[in-house]
Amino acid sequence: MITLLHIDASARGGRSDLHAHGSHTRRLGERFVARWHAVRAADPVFYRDVGQAPPAPVDSAWIHAAFTPESTRLPWMQGRLAESDRLVDELAAADLIVAGVPMYNFGVPAGFKAYIDNIVRVGRTFGFDRARRGEPYWPLLTDRPRTLVLLGSRGDYGYGGRIAAMNHVEPAVRTAFGYIGIRDVRTAAVEYDEFGGECLAASLRKAEAAVDALVDELLAGLPGARIKPPALMA
Ligand SMILES: Cc1cc2nc3c(=O)[nH]c(=O)nc-3n(C[C@H](O)[C@H](O)[C@H](O)COP(=O)(O)O)c2cc1C
Fold first, then answer.
1. What is the pLDDT of residue 112?
2. S-S: 112 plus which of 9, 38, 95, 156, CB 3.0-4.6 Å?
3. 103 is in an annotated binding site
4. Helix, strand, coil percentages for the chain (3-state, nearest 5)
5. Which of 193, 194, 199, 208 is the pocket-test mutation for ligand 1 (most atoms within 8 Å of CB)?
6. Residue 228 domain-assigned?
7. Which residues in 191-212 are b (16+ Cβ under 10 Å) and which e?
8. How many whole angstroms from 60 Cα to the centroid of ligand 1?
């Protein structure tokens, strides 16, 4: 079984193909999971909507608790870290993370940043020992391979070329997930949301085709893979 963790981070509810003001990243994420499930219906999926229900941002109590050794944590510290623990447990249980992450002001939305801050946890997802020879920080999510599929959307265009230097979404997410041990990152993104019309329509078609190709590629890479994904959505 492959366990999926599906995360949405758009502040917009609903998918753009079903709702007039819906989200493209929600649309891509649901498409990915539906195509995956068409072939592997029994694979479990955890779902997190950090756009509609963001985790509590890191505060002074969280920092105090997280940097207190687990064995000496007081009950209030355990309580403050309970949500972060749940998010880390969920992530650690996943083989495949599918995250729909829009660009807000050149970076990730606040809810997804709060998610990252809650899952990059000393002693849980990365190790730190200032006396360690060589590298004092090391990733802890290394017990098995995990893949992150990062599905983006932006209002402007050219974030892979023309204005790539202004794109702080993919680089920031790759860095944070790589730091904790998730280094296999695949991406697809919609552009031109602010332009609409044929530019946006063409970008959506391209991103959806990229999502389908990603699913097929990942399925084909599974041990013993033989089943071809069906020709699902047009
Ligand atoms: C608060 C906010 C900030 C945004 N900042 C940017 C930006 O910096 N660059 C950009 O190209 N588009 C920006 N956009 C446009 C979104 O990236 C675009 O609408 C995208 O499709 C949103 O993802 P969604 O469709 O999944 O909701 C912004 C949108 C919002 C609401």
1. 98
2. 9
3. yes
4. 40, 20, 45
5. 193
6. no
7. bbbeeeeeebeebbeebbebbb
8. 30
Provide the pLDDT for residue 227: 53
Read off the tokens for 49.
């909507």
The confidence score (pLDDT) of residue 234 equals: 41
CB 188 within 8 A of CB 35: no
Q: How far is the CA of 52 from the centre of ligand 1 (A)?
A: 16
pLDDT tens digit string along 10-28? 999 999 999 999 999 999 9
Mean pLDDT of the chain: 96
* 176 found inside a domain: yes
For residue 62, how far is its CA from the centre of ligand 1 (angstroms)? 29
Residues of the chain with pLDDT under 50: 232-234
Please report the pLDDT score of residue 224 as a whole number.
78
Number of domains in the chain: 1
Quote the pLDDT of residue 83. Answer: 98
> Using CA positions, which residue lies closest to atom 8 of ligand 1?
105
Q: Are 27 and 16 in contact, with CB atoms under 8 Å apart?
A: yes
Whether residue 233 lies inside any domain: the answer is no
Which of 98, 103, 151 to mutate for ligand 1's pocket (most ligand atoms within 8 Å of CB)?
A: 103
Please report whether residue 229 resides in a domain: no
pLDDT value of position 225: 76
| pLDDT value, residue 228 | 56
Host domain of residue 199:
4-220
Torsion of CA 172, 186, 46, 54, to 10 degrees: 20
Provide the pLDDT for residue 229. Answer: 53
Q: Which CATH number covers residue 196? A: 3.40.50.360
